[in-house]
Amino acid sequence: MSAAEDIVTEAPAVEAVPKRAMTLGYGTSLVVLAALILIPLFVKNFIIFQMTMLLIYALAVMALNILTGGSGQFSLGQSAFYAVGAYTSAILMEHAGMNYALTLPVAGIVCFGFGFLFGQPALRLSGVYLALATFALATAMPQLLKLGYFEHWTGGVQGLVVTKPDAPFGLPMSQDMWLYYFTLAVGIAIYIASVNLLRSRSGRAFMAIRDNEIAASAMGVDVALYKTLAFGVSAGITGVAGGLGAIAVQFVAPDGYTIQLAISLFLGMVVGGVGWLPGSIVGSAFIIFVPNIAEGISKGLSGAVFGVLLFLVIFLVPHGARQVAIVAQQLAAKLKKN
Amino acid sequence: MLSTVRIAAISAAIVAVAATSTAAFAQKKYDTGASDTEIKVGNIIPYSGPASAYGVIGKTEEAYFKMINDRGGINGRKVNFVSYDDAYSPPKAVEQVRKLVESDEVLLVFNPLGTPSNTAIQKYLNSKKIPQLFVATGATKWNDPKNFPWTMGWQPSYQSEAQIYAKWLMKEKPDAKVAILYQNDDFGKDYLKGTKDGFGAKAASSIIMEESYEVSEPSIDGHIVKIKAANPDVLLIYTTPKFGAQTIKKTAELGWKPLQIITNVSASVGSVMQPAGFDNAQGVLSAAYAKDGADSQWNNDPGMKKWSEFLDKYMPGADKTDGGYVYGYGAAQTLAKVLEMCGDDLTRANVMKQAASLKEFTPDTLLPGVKINTSATDFAPIAQLQMQRFKGQKWELFGDIISGDVPSE
Fold first, then answer.
1. For residue B290, which phi and psi values (nearest 5 degrees)?
2. A252 vs chain B: nearest CA distance in angstroms?
3. What does pTM read for this prediction?
4. What domains can be seen in chain A, in order of their start residue?
5. Contact call for B99 and A159, based on CB within 8 A
6. pLDDT tens digits along A45-69
7. Helices within B212-282 (DSSP H only)
8. Domains and CATH numbers, chain B
9. A53 close contact with B: CB closer than 8 A
10. Separation between Cα atoms, residue B100 and residue B105, nearest integer Å
């Protein structure tokens, strides 16, 4: 087994109750939710836009988390699913004049199909080999989007400009604020669905495969089916995130979905804590804000500063935000006793 | 009687005061980002990521405005130049530009770099009526005042440059068999279109091969071998710098001597000709609109002397062969000129109006005879180039200044 795989399998093994360890308690969830609902009322449109992007990337990170933390499979190809989702939404909105909200389920279904099909050949691969196969997908995607054959729909290298939706029913809200709440609603729905999925029979099957494939199949889990299913679900959620991203940024172009994005999402997952769904939002915040902080420290060396910060995080809290949360919980418990 | 006189006097005084105050009011007009003491200018450029070599342009512009501020600013106002990294990624560009507009509250966005990034922010800036001034890309679409009255280009468009090559070839080598190597993106395709437009009816008979490559390919040697097999006598190299150097080197290695014309984008002595090998690059043609910082013929040129002094003082240690320093200086000087022309009316509308009224303006770094002209219907500031031939270790200009204006679509 590769070293990378050890990290993944190790983390949940520490926690005896993986199902529970994947989510937050009700109290904490409500506090986070209240913060997410209230903050936009008091900040500038620009911050709202950043928070929208935060939620969108959090969704994409969570999708990867389901795949890696849930079923133990690697993917460096999430940017490809994100791109397919973004393009599906953009093309439906701009060429077919479809309502933006309706394009999202379509994007999700298209990506689910794409991910499920990609999962078939990926079945034969595991660990770093699977990571490499998905890496190939991510590198190929921007070029596929540039192909002259699709250019009529994709706009080729020029990309497509997407119109941002207004708030419906004449609500007195800016476009940004509406889009934020819309994204938040979609995000919460998907989060709840994902938590339930992982607590269900299928979720247990995912985790059984992650922990020990042979044991899982001995228990009657259809390993091939559930592995591809995990890929499909992950790709589907990433596709919805991509569609939302296209609407928020108002532009899709092949160069926006390079391998860089896939690596960022992977980074977000590790920083947030592999297998811990609420960590996705922390990981997403890391990939959005830390590059800005690094740039603030040194413009010429922003990449190096980012590297140092990342190194510190991995070194000090190897299990990411999840570790911080556990430590905080223990501290709180101690304080209560005293 | 007395009271009427008094009333008359008082009202006269009031009128006088009112008149002077409105006069003062009419003199100074500001939009967000401008005040009595400061003009806030925003910029995005890739300081990191695959295109980070262009970051030097942003640094040059920052240094240029520092020089302007040291000399007292523009009409007494200091320029506050806020520049962010977009890593050449469109989503990041949108985020950073929104930060500039909504958080830093800049008067205008100046010289944002890259076609994808500019496409991503164009609609936003135009809907907010914020100038997207002198964008750092040669795509032809920026000259579209009717649909995007808040966006303006700066450098010659790729299409006009390509047209100039086609026109020159038709005149000098009417029977040429032309092969085109182009990058498979908007950059390369703009050149391809310009070339075909330039050849006009002769395009089909003159161009015998169009070969494209992807920017992600590590080497383009295979493409060169393929082109050579078709045996053209002219090779048009529409590539970015790295591939330009590879092409010139590979043709020499194959012992093949077609007439080579390379884009202005890849005409840098330091980053293309030298890596390709000076011996291999002899006789290669290109076109230019700016002076080359590495070229000794400009040593006594007053404009380039100013440029050189600026670099020595504000950017010590700068590599003068890097075209980015020349580019950033010229673009920043053009903006300084526009802001100066705005006087005390620093509204966004007036900035665009003044930017569209540049007449025969010549920044220090442009070739003699190349002038910046704009109007309400011409948003393409630089549209002239001159042919040049590589000889020894530098470019030699020849022929007349050629104009390649492409009408706005």
1. -120, 160
2. 8
3. 0.77
4. 3-337 (1.10.3470)
5. no
6. 888 989 999 999 999 999 999 998 8
7. 221-230, 241-253, 274-276, 278-281
8. 38-156+300-378 (3.40.50.2300), 159-288+388-403 (3.40.50.2300)
9. yes
10. 6
